[in-house]
Structure formats: structure tokens, C-alpha cells
Design brief:
mainly alpha, two-stranded antiparallel ribbon, 11 helices, 2 strands, globular
Length: about 260
């Protein structure tokens, strides 16, 4: 339809479509359509709107052509590692205690390891695969911030219109922590994408975070204060997770800047 669509226009069309699908499908099929909507919109953009997908270059820009194996340990350490430290912190502070997992935990973890990477890929091919390269005209840091803001808006219909995600606790506090954490993740994942030149370390990081917080908060600890632990402190986007993620994003950014300065000299 629009074979000469600019990156700026392509990014705008992508954002409009993915947010419209999010708003329209948040209450349908348990949010499953919303969850895979970034992937669906990427396919629509590449195969229908711009037809870039009929050539090699359109797919190459998504970052799937290389594994980026060197950055896989970093992806795990900055996500699953942060969740582990956050969980240990709530136990050390007395908000929770380590406990034996329930009898069905193995089956649940296996299911998580099957569905988790698929859902992480469905998101990241949109945010860091399609959108990040097309926002490069904004500059690296501004692009990551914009993606973070879009990412927040994409989640909001599911958060606000359904009971399935971050429905417990004080709404203002939860949304504040959630928004701050998503921005931190956007900078962390964006830098992994730039650093590696690959989408796969980001997919691994996204899955590692989701799996780690789910397993640790559901099966490794017990608490009489679940809202404080899971929403405010060490859950998906709790305070400790936000602080750890922001620190990792800052450390990677500082390291990259230092290396670039050395190369320039």
C-alpha cells in the first residue's frame, strides 16, 4: 500500500494500530489477543501496509538474523538476577519467608517455559524489533523513552479494565510503580538491543524477568502481606525491581558511553 512510507510514519501507524487493538481486545479471551498484538501489527505492517516483508531488508531490521549470544548472560543477570535479589530483600526485611513449593509447581513451571518465550517474543518483535529502529531519528535515549511510554499505554487497558493484572493494592501507587518500572525496562531492553544488534537477548531478558518473578513470588516464598510483597516491593514491577532494573540500565549505559569515548579518543 505505502512502499515508500518513512520510518517516522511507519512508527506512528504501528503505535496507533497496536494501541487500538489493546483498547479493543483487553477484555477478550483473557487478554490473549492484546498480548500478541505487537506481533500481529508487525506482520500487518510488513506484509500489508508497507510490504517491506516481501524483501530481505524488512526482516533484517527486526534483529532476528543473529543470536547475540555474548549478551545472553547479561540479559539473565539484569532481569532474573534482579528478581532474585528483590525476593531475598523482602525475606531479609521480614515481609516474607522462604517456603517449600506446592506439589504442582513442576507442571506449572514447564507450562511457563513453553508459553513464556512465545509471549515475550510476540511483544519484543514489536517494541524492540520493529519500533526501536524506526524511532532512531529521535536519538537513542529519546527513542527508548517513547517506547516505554507506548508500552505503558499498551498495558493500561488490561490493567484498568480487567482484574487479571495489577488489580490489587492502591491503584495510584501500583500504577506509579508500574510506570516507573516499565520505563526502566525500556531503557534496559533498548540497550540490550543496541548493544547486541539482536532481538534475541531482549526476548530472553523479557522472559527471564517474567519467569523469575512468577516462580519466586508464587513458589519460593510465602507471606501474610501479599499485596505489599507482590505489588509494592518484589513482584513484577515492585519498588525493589524498579531500583534494580534502573541501576542495571544506568550501569550498561555508562559502560557503553565510556567505551564509545575511548574509541573516539
Amino acid at each position: 500500500m505505502f512502499e515508500q512510507l518513512s520510518d517516522r510514519a511507519g512508527a506512528v501507524v504501528f503505535v496507533v494500530l497496536v494501541l487500538a487493538i489493546s483498547l479493543g481486545t483487553a477484555t477478550i479471551a483473557g487478554g490473549l489477543i492484546l498480548a500478541v498484538s505487537p506481533l500481529l501489527v508487525v506482520l500487518v505492517m510488513l506484509l500489508v501496509v508497507t510490504r517491506e516483508g516481501y524483501g530481505r531488508e524488512g526482516w533484517r531490521r527486526l534483529g532476528m538474523g543473529r543470536l547475540g549470544l555474548r549478551d545472553w548472560p547479561l540479559a539473565i543477570a539484569t532481569t532474573a538476577g534482579v528478581c532474585a535479589v528483590a525476593t531475598a530483600a523482602v525475606v531479609a526485611l521480614g515481609f516474607a519467608r522462604f517456603s517449600a513449593p506446592p506439589s504442582d509447581w513442576v507442571q506449572n513451571v514447564v507450562a511457563l517455559c513453553i508459553t513464556g518465550p512465545i509471549l515475550a517474543f510476540a511483544e519484543e518483535i514489536g517494541w524492540r524489533g520493529y519500533l526501536q529502529p524506526r524511532l532512531a531519528f529521535l536519538g537513542e535515549w529519546t527513542a527508548m523513552l517513547v517506547i516505554g511510554l507506548v508500552w505503558i499505554c499498551w498495558h493500561l487497558p488490561y490493567v484498568l479494565l480487567t482484574p487479571g493484572y495489577h488489580s490489587d493494592g492502591n491503584r495510584a501507587v501500583v500504577l506509579g510503580l508500574f510506570s516507573c518500572s516499565v520505563i526502566a525496562f525500556s531503557f534496559l531492553f533498548g540497550q540490550l538491543r543496541t548493544r547486541s544488534g539482536s532481538l534475541w537477548p531482549v526476548v530472553l531478558a523479557h522472559f527471564a524477568h517474567n519467569a523469575a518473578f512468577a516462580v519466586l513470588t508464587e513458589y519460593a516464598i510465602s507471606t501474610e502481606r501479599p499485596v505489599a510483597v507482590r505489588e509494592y516491593l518484589s513482584g513484577d514491577t515492585g519498588l525493589f525491581v524498579f531500583i534494580g532494573t534502573a541501576a542495571c540500565a544506568f550501569a550498561i549505559g555508562f559502560s557503553r558511553s565510556a567505551r564509545q569515548a575511548q574509541v573516539a579518543v
